């Protein structure tokens, strides 16, 4: 009977498994009984700390988790991993995903985040798996860029404002085209900003919470930011990977906006993070200028400047407002976008970053 159960067990492949979303998705799928194969790129340094707890033998179902070397820009490696693992579900989370970096590495971003999607779809066809496989593509709210409507839903026109968004637009339409041309079950999840204690340290929310923690412990003097009045729709990555999975469980493939339906400024997120760290701040100087600064408002460190504006963090083309409408995901998938409030998310991130100052592996508990 055990072998029959194993034969029925679903198998999934996650590209970008070493990232924030990949680690949460791997946990979710293992909990659901899947065999999970993760794809990672070769690196000379240790590059999967977010997976360390999953790879520990004491983690539930850890024996069903397997890592493989492959790359979205290496077509042959994609064919090999698909042929060897024979997954029923593929979650393409791999990309060069940092907007600011994409202005410095536009061609690489185009290859990894755009052409890589086409490589994956062609590898599925080359291995003859198009009829038996379901594909999730990690699309992005950055597609909307210079927004044409508020809030943004599945019908809102796209206006990308970065090489990253342009590359993701290529991937978005590749998914739609292969769905229509070859009848591949392929979905785009247009995910708005989603964060967690596992978020990369160069992304603004994690940069803020890490700075709040380090400044609290007097390991850092000041946080430097760009446009603090930019507005974003922030959710928890742990909640958003549930929606990814739900997309591939439907009778027909489709594209969905994944968002909370609420928008908040970077400024407000900073206030929440420093409040949690016990350093409530007030703003001084001309609002919206490079002279504006955040100063500790009360307590033993009252008057200490902890936030400054640095023009080097301004983007060549700014995206000022992103606000998603998750009505379709709620209606069709039964997904709840309000599982974790922004305040809960911010508090969790700050608490984790304070804990990590003492133990660098502490984030796996969050």
From TrEMBL:
It is an enzyme of class 4 (lyase). It comes from the Eukaryota. Transmembrane segments: none annotated. One of its GO terms (biological process) is 'de novo' GDP-L-fucose biosynthetic process. Keywords: Lyase. GO terms for molecular function: GDP-mannose 4,6-dehydratase activity. Its cofactor is NADP(+). InterPro entries: GDP_Man_deHydtase (IPR006368), NAD(P)-bd_dom (IPR016040), NAD(P)-bd_dom_sf (IPR036291). PANTHER family: GDP-MANNOSE 4,6 DEHYDRATASE, GDP-MANNOSE 4,6-DEHYDRATASE. This is GDP-mannose 4,6-dehydratase. It comes from Elliptochloris bilobata. The lineage of its organism: Eukaryota, Viridiplantae, Chlorophyta, core chlorophytes, Trebouxiophyceae.
């Amino acid at each position: 009977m055990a072998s029959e159960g194993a034969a029925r067990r679903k198998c999934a492949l996650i590209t970008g498994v070493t990232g924030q979303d990949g680690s949460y998705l791997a946990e979710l799928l293992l909990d659901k009984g899947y065999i999970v194969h993760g794809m990672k790129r070769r690196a000379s340094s240790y590059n999967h700390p977010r997976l360390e707890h999953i790879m520990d033998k004491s983690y539930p179902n850890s024996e069903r988790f397997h890592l493989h070397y492959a790359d979205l820009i290496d077509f042959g490696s994609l064919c090999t991993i698909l042929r060897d693992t024979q997954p029923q579900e593929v979650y393409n989370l791999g990309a060069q995903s940092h907007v600011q970096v994409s202005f410095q590495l536009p061609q690489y971003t185009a290859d990894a985040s755009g052409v890589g999607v086409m490589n994956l779809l062609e590898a599925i066809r080359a291995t003859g798996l198009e009829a038996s496989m379901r594909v999730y593509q990690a699309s992005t709210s950055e597609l909307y860029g210079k927004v044409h409507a508020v809030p943004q839903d599945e019908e809102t026109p796209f206006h990308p404002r970065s090489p990253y968004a342009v590359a993701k637009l290529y991937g978005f339409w590749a998914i739609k085209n292969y769905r229509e041309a070859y009848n591949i079950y392929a979905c785009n999840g247009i995910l708005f900003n989603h964060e967690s204690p596992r978020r990369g340290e160069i992304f603004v929310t994690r940069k803020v919470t890490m700075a709040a923690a380090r400044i609290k412990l007097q390991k850092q003097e000041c946080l430097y930011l760009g446009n603090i009045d930019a507005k974003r729709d922030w959710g928890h990555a742990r909640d958003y990977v549930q929606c990814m999975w739900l997309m591939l469980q439907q009778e027909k493939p489709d594209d969905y906006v994944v968002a909370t339906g609420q928008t908040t400024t970077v400024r407000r997120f900073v206030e929440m993070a420093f409040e949690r760290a016990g350093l409530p701040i007030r703003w001084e100087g001309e609002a919206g200028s490079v002279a504006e600064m955040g100063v500790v408002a009360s307590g033993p460190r009252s008057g200490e400047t902890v936030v400054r504006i640095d023009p080097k963090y301004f983007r060549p083309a700014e995206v000022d407002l992103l606000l998603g409408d998750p009505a379709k995901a709620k209606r069709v998938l039964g997904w709840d976008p309000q599982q974790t409030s922004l305040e809960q998310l911010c508090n969790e991130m700050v608490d984790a970053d304070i804990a990590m100052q003492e133990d660098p592996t502490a984030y796996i508990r969050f």
